[in-house]
Design a protein that fits this description.
Two copies of one chain form a homodimer. Chain A is an alpha/beta fold and 327 residues long. Helices cover 34% and strands 26% of the residues of chain A. Chain A has eleven helices and 14 strands. Chain A is globular. Chains A and B meet through helix 1, helix 3, helix 4, strand 13 and helix 10 of A and helix 1, helix 3, helix 4, strand 13 and helix 10 of B. Strand 13 of chain A pairs antiparallel with strand 13 of chain B, so a sheet runs across the interface.
């Protein structure tokens, strides 16, 4: 059994707990929290909730620690810190800061003889893998990534900061015509506006000016100004009834040419359609936790990404079994 | 530079030659043939065509040998034989015989201190990888593979063996309604007939009985009897004009559930749309040849499959570069 710990019990931490239940060779050893452990109730019977202050006591009782903090401020500190004590996996997703995060985690993990995997999930994660494979197969080609339809947490937060907004949710929607042009091998150069639209569902505060709110959202720099944005005003009840989920997904497409004179065209497409973004991310993480436990048992140390892990390490099946049934 | 040799100069061998041209860190060292080398003309200037009888002379001049023989009779003999002299890659695609082929190649490669990669391409190959990743991420789920629209060489050959048929080509076509049911998460149980249709373009011999030919094709066991098959009679000119290509492709889909009670559904889909089946297969093979050359330089030996190769090994870029640009 692979003994897994969870640090941080939000949507992602709960998703990891669910994924552990689905994988017969993994077990949840403990959940660590910054809150008062008494106030945190986990779903798995008999699993202790422990203050993160006591995490060092679990050094020899956990094979892989999954760190479910946020990328903005938590993970840059947490992952290098906990890599001194545990094999760790995180889902660090600030693309621009990955090289720096990798270097910090690598130094800590190597010094401690631990293995760390950063930026695990679907983007970064499975989407990155598909970009890499497709680039290696079709060196003469062009990459496209589309996201959605799905909830963007950052954009939903931005809506909720607009004066007069009581609550809100934002969906990122890929533009079907752009997707079709890419799939048809037209190699389009797409602007931000041409790739995605943004759809907002907003609950107004009592007496708020709907037109002013809509204008404030649509012209917000970085978040909405560069997109065609639709704003729907709905009631708190409608928001709760129709928009409680956290769906997401997207498309990674590479088109490219082969042949002596580039005469043949090819399209490689990978897509995800997810009812629950955090649960899918967690499911990827737990599969990789298995790989990290194995690498550690082989004496490997240092920081890894999904690029560095041979696919067979993710599977509970033997090499013979995967060759016989999946090749 | 990675020095690559090609054994067998048919569609696949020519595709490998084209792929080598697209990859700046690879070069074609020589092409080996069972034919009279004088009769074989390759596209790359200055590359020798050598009798396969003299292949041992090239032992120290080739980093990876790509064996472009057929799976039925060539590869089961060739790959273990050449793995005694070279690091090798093949595209062995007889799924049922992979375990036996793996064992034979593994023994030969280990004894010689060489690395071999078998069953490389897209199915087996990229489709297998996607089945593995998706199975590891969604343990509670269901797999679907659809092929096409594309030319099946085996079925085209079967048509051409029917009395009265001068020439012919067969396309395997996935049933759109079945694909949609799978994507919609309906978990359908699909019969052979419900997954694919078969479309045949047939040139009759002078005076042949079209109705008898159509009947013979549609009722042919294994090849056509279990499918809804359409037969179109066309002229030799139309066949040459409209059906000269070797397109193919397909879809690997896994649907699955997550959540404490399986309450959330997910769809992972990988698809290929290929103008040239052999050139795409060759492009996958050359990316993996790079990986095999690297593994060999690290002292690895034995037989591998795509499951055993960490994705980063396929890329000409450094770890820093792929983390910065593709993660």
């Amino acid at each position: 059994m692979i003994r897994i710990g969870i640090i941080g019990y939000g949507n992602l931490g709960r998703g990891v707990e669910c994924a552990i239940k689905q994988n017969a060779d993994t077990e949840l050893a403990a959940v660590f929290t910054r809150r008062d452990p008494q106030t945190v109730k986990v779903m798995t019977p008999g699993v202790p909730v422990v203050s993160v202050a006591d995490v060092a006591d679990w050094k020899d009782k956990i094979d892989v620690m999954i760190i479910c903090g946020g990328s903005a401020t938590d993970l840059p500190k947490q992952t290098p810190e906990y890599a001194k004590l545990f094999n760790v996996v995180d889902s660090f997703d600030t693309h621009a800061r990955i090289p720096e995060h990798f270097a910090n985690v690598d130094a800590a993990a190597k010094a401690a003889g631990k293995v760390a995997l950063i930026s695990c999930g679907w983007d970064p994660g499975m989407f990155s893998l598909n970009r890499l494979y497709a680039n290696c197969i079709l060196p003469d080609g062009k990459d496209y990534t589309f996201w959605g339809k799905g909830v963007s947490q950052g954009h939903s937060d931005a809506i909720r900061r607009v004066p007069g907004v009581k609550n809100g949710k934002q969906y990122t929607v890929p533009v079907e015509a752009a997707l079709e042009a890419v799939r048809a091998g037209k190699d389009p150069e797409l602007t931000t506006r041409e790739k995605h639209t943004r759809e907002c569902f907003v609950v107004l505060e009592e007496g708020a000016d709907a037109a002013a709110v809509e204008q404030a959202i649509k012209t917000m720099p970085n978040y909405f100004a560069d997109y065609d944005t639709t704003v729907h005003f709905i009631s708190e009840e409608e928001l709760a009834r129709d928009h409680a989920g956290i769906p997401h997904g997207g498309f990674v497409i590479r088109t490219g040419k082969t042949g002596w004179n580039g005469e043949n065209r090819h399209v490689i497409e990978y897509s995800l359609k997810l009812d629950s973004n955090p649960e899918f991310t967690s499911s990827v993480i737990v599969a990789y936790a298995r790989a990290i436990a194995r690498l550690s048992s082989e004496g490997v140390s240092g920081c890894k990404t999904v690029f560095d892990i041979a696919p067979a390490y993710l599977s509970p099946l033997s090499g013979d079994e995967i060759r016989a049934h999946l090749l």
